[in-house]
Amino acid sequence: MRVDIDWLKEFVDFDWDLVQLADRLTMAGLEAYYGQEDGIGFIEVEITSNRSDWLSVLGIAREIAALKRTQISQPEIEQIAKGQVDYRLSVQEDCAVRYFGLRIDGVKVGPSPEWLSRRLRAAGIRPINNVVDVTNYTMLLFGQPLHAFDFARIEGRELLVRRAKKGERIVTLDGEERLLTPSDIVIADSNRPVALAGIMGGENSEVGQDTRFILLESAMFPRVDIRKTRQRLGINTEASYRFEREIDPEAVERACFYAAKLISELSGGSILGYDVYDKYAPFERIISFPMEFPLEYADVNIPLEEQVRILTGLGFECDVKEGIIDVKVPSFRQDVSLKEDVLEEVLRIYGYDKIPMVMPGIGLNNLRGRYSLKERLLSEIRCKLEARGLSEAISFSLISEKEKEALSLKGLLSVENTISQDYLFLRPSAISGLLSALKTNLSYGNKYIRIYEISQALTREDLCVERDVLSILVVEEELNAAFRAIKQIIEDILGFTDIEIKKAKNKILSSFAEIYSNNKRLGFFGKVRNVVLKQLGIKTRDVVFYLEVDLSELLGLWEDRKLVYESIPLYPPVERDISMWLGGRTNYQEIVDIIKKAGGDYLRTIELIDVFHSPDGRLSYAYRLRFYHPDRTLKEEEIDPDFERIIEALKDASIDVRAV
Amino acid sequence: MDWKKEIQILEETLEQLKARYADRIDLKTLEELRVKFLGKKGPIKALFDFLKIAPKDEKRELGQAVNRIKGLFESWIVEMRQSLEYHEEEIRDLTVPSRLPSLGHRHIITQTIDEITSVFKGLGFAIATGPEIEQEYYNFTALNIDITHPSRDAFDTFYLKIPPDKKKGKFLLRSHTSPMQVRIMEAISPPVAAIVPGRVYRPDAVDASHSFMFHQIEGFLVDKAVKFSHLKGVLLEFARRYFYEDVKLRFRPHYFPFTEPSAEVDISCQLCKGEGCSACKQTGWIEVLGCGMIHPNVFKHLPSEYEGYTGFAFGMGVERLCMLKYGIPDIRLFYSNDLRFLSQF
């Protein structure tokens, strides 16, 4: 809201310039900017959502008054007698709390005087005529939205505040036709709605040049209903903005009388009287506020008189006895309901900057254990991955239908209120994000694409549960290189536990395998199939390998792991190399198992030192075996029997030993 | 024999040798030179021979000169031999690039979270994380956010298309990390001091300064007699360690439903020291976080063992701090995962 300085000065005396004023208000919690127009200074304030009283000149003036430790002077209001009115007012249950309908006759509609138009323009409201302008002017002053009907156009001399009927329509003042539902509140005459309550008037009862008879509305509508209708119809008006934040119920009457008086002054009409519906029970709230509370809760000693002056300036009435201030909350400050609320009022006007800065002595923190373990595990994994050249990606946790289809993801959760078709489904892991990152990086010609992401599994099984998933993507030129790179990473991060890798089938990944430990599935990996890459528009001739690890499972294993020292051989080893052709389905591990079994007590390590593909398509592995004695240096010939046994065992298993 | 001339020639020869072999000499040449000058048939030996027959009055002077020149040759030979022993091949071009691939880079968001949380760890806080799929109760109700009030507009939320829970309401993607205040305190007895980083979601269209997914860090401390002054103290200590040593803080009153009193915190602009510049939009201050004393209505939702306790809470947007600190102009860069961006940090 924007307001002229001279208008504020009608109600509060201050000598600050614009810069000081904006600064003082901002530091009291009312964010203010300043400027000048037509040589007159103004300030523009941005309110917080709890302070609808700031949406008025009087509200801002009160803030300044409290900062100056003074009080505002109230605008002059003349009581108006109820009198006799020539229409019937009825209000349906729950459609309004208060409703004043005041009649003015014989107005002459014309332009408003310049002083009034200017103040409206300064506030960003277009001047229309001397009736409508007064309603807006009064709204700016009190924060109470008002509406003027052309009484001659109200049919049946009847005004009804009621729920809209299903299918009922109204053309609002902006020229739009609105289809209404029974959750909307309307003002209607005997035939049709004439205004959308608390939001906008209807065209059919608009005040125009020829209007002679006025019905002035000042009311309080239930804020939740106004908000619902406003949201559904997508109309945002000065009135709805105030109503949905709650207005001052006690300003309804005052604003009505003030506006009536001003209309009759400016347009020469005479006030007939008013009818009223009033279900407002005067607001009463007294909060006991110990004067020591600022000291107890903020380490700041504010003299009692100072506290009282601040609160009085803000419009609270104070009654002090025995160190307690009984704070009477005014109707326009219903946001204040606890002593902590009162404290905020005192502190913010006194100045947050006067509160000292103190380091607390933190008691024994009871939050520890699993979280810190998880943090350590994640940090260790991150370090290892980065050492292997993987960079961390962070990608959106919502994915599109296309990604969902390409990755054959089923049973995904989706969001109700989506912002874009690209972000529709909650993803179980970051595979989609990493593939999208791959696409981005390929398009920029970036090399050495190795990325990882740690994200939460957002699935039906994990509602309100935190299950972290590690996703890894490695790009290599050739299949075996990619596999060995992934395997190295698996050993890096899962090496602390015994794992088993089992081949399986998968629609998305080829060379697919699952990783188990103690029969728990820790994760899986494989090459992203070309058909999947193609569907996602990723063009590359390289091999894209993907690995996924369930970090929550891993954390359990990591927690239970036992690190126990194992003695290091003190004496040098005897080494023997052995190479063999791999027949049939034999693999690296089987051979290791045979060697281990036959090897004897001295055999300590078995290492793959060479892989040879012969021109005729056969595959050969060469192993290096190391034999140690715990207490002395072994002699070469001492291990001959062990080595013979190993060779025999391999031969027994029909393995073709090439060379020893 | 004009021995003075001979000595002078030898001195000059030595200088020439030193110049010529300054960089490099091989062992063979060095040995040849040694034999040539210091050997039995060399000029120095000849001078020693002459010394025996030289006139008596010249002997002393000649003796000194010959010994000196011999010493000079010998020490040069020793020096050259030593330099030969230490000689190895050297890298010719130190500007050549390192081997690829180099180390991977941790995302700057994670680095920022690590940096901030480690400051709080140093102050006695413990790190916790929580679920991104939340419920209305934790995201709103328990935090004193009235779903019917416009204050909720600031917390626009992605709701999930699944039936709500009878007690805790609709499922949603958390719109802030604050629900963890309640979750942690439901599970853990006071006192507690936690720092909670994580992803949060709000249905904003993605542009240079908005994203529907971003990161927040929530922190809170609950103990006996925790005061507003403690909140200020802890945040100042944090700002000194994270931003810069002589940083100043400005607490502006503000409104958050879950704290009372509440404040927004600005730090003095490091670039202009409060004078006003483009980084701080000429104000000298930069807004960095929101905070306040935990609202009594939040305590009402906590187990009864929290009666008599008070606390403060604060929250900050990680992307925003990151953008400020490193001059990153567009929030979308964080989620592009372009290695040219990632590898800058």
Q: Report the biggest beta sheet of chain A as strand number plus sense, adding barrel if it closes.
A: 7 strands, mixed
Question: How confident is the prediction overall: mean pLDDT of chain A?
Answer: 94
> What is the string of SSEs of chain B from the N terminus onward?
HHHHHEEHEEHEEHEEEHEHHH
The rounded Rg of chain B comes to 39 Å
Number of domains of chain B: 2
Q: What share of the residues of chain B does DSSP label as strand, in percent?
A: 15-25%
- Looking at the structure, what is the overall shape of chain B? rod-shaped
With helices defined by DSSP (H or I, 4 residues minimum), what is the helix count of chain B? 12
Looking at the structure, what is the overall shape of chain A? elongated
| Fraction of residues in helix of chain B | 25-40%
What is the structural class of chain A? alpha+beta
Strand order of the largest sheet of chain B: 1-5-6-10-9-8-7
CATH topology of the largest domain in chain A: Phenylalanyl-tRNA Synthetase, Chain B, domain 3
Mean pLDDT of chain B: 92
What helical percentage do the residues of chain A reach?
25-40%
Task: Give start-end ranges of low-pLDDT stretches of chain A.
Answer: none
The CATH homology group name of the largest domain in chain A? Phenylalanyl-trna Synthetase, Chain B, domain 3
Q: Approximately how much beta-strand content do the residues of chain A carry? A: 25-35%
Cα-atom radius of gyration of chain A: 40 Å
Q: How would you describe what is shown here?
A:
The complex is a heterodimer of chains A (660) and B (345). Chain A starts with a strand and ends with a strand. In chain A, strands 18-21-22-26-25-24-23 form a seven-stranded mixed β-sheet, with helices on both faces. Chain A has a five-stranded mixed β-sheet with strand order 4-7-10-11-12. Chain A has a four-stranded antiparallel β-sheet with strand order 6-13-5-14. Helix content of chain A is 30%, strand content 26%. In chain A, helix 5 (132-142) runs antiparallel to helix 8 (251-267), helix 10 (304-313) crosses helix 11 and helix 12 (370-387) packs across helix 17 (551-560). Chain A is elongated and about 125 Å long. Chain A is α+β, with helices and mostly antiparallel strands and 660 residues long. Chain A has five domains: 2-67, 2-Layer Sandwich (Phenylalanyl-tRNA Synthetase, Chain B, domain 1), CATH 3.30.56; 88-278, Phenylalanyl-trna Synthetase, Chain B, domain 3 (Phenylalanyl-tRNA Synthetase, Chain B, domain 3), CATH 3.50.40.10; 286-352, 2-Layer Sandwich (Phenylalanyl-tRNA Synthetase, Chain B, domain 1), CATH 3.30.56; 370-560, 2-Layer Sandwich (BirA Bifunctional Protein, domain 2), CATH 3.30.930.10; 574-659, 2-Layer Sandwich (Alpha-Beta Plaits). By secondary structure, chain B is an alpha+beta fold. In chain B, a hairpin with a 2-residue loop joins strand 7 and strand 8 (259-268). Chain B starts with a helix and ends with a helix. The mean pLDDT of chain B is 92. At the A-B interface, helix 6, helix 9, helix 11, helix 12 and strand 18 of A face helix 5, strand 1, strand 2, strand 3 and strand 5 of B.
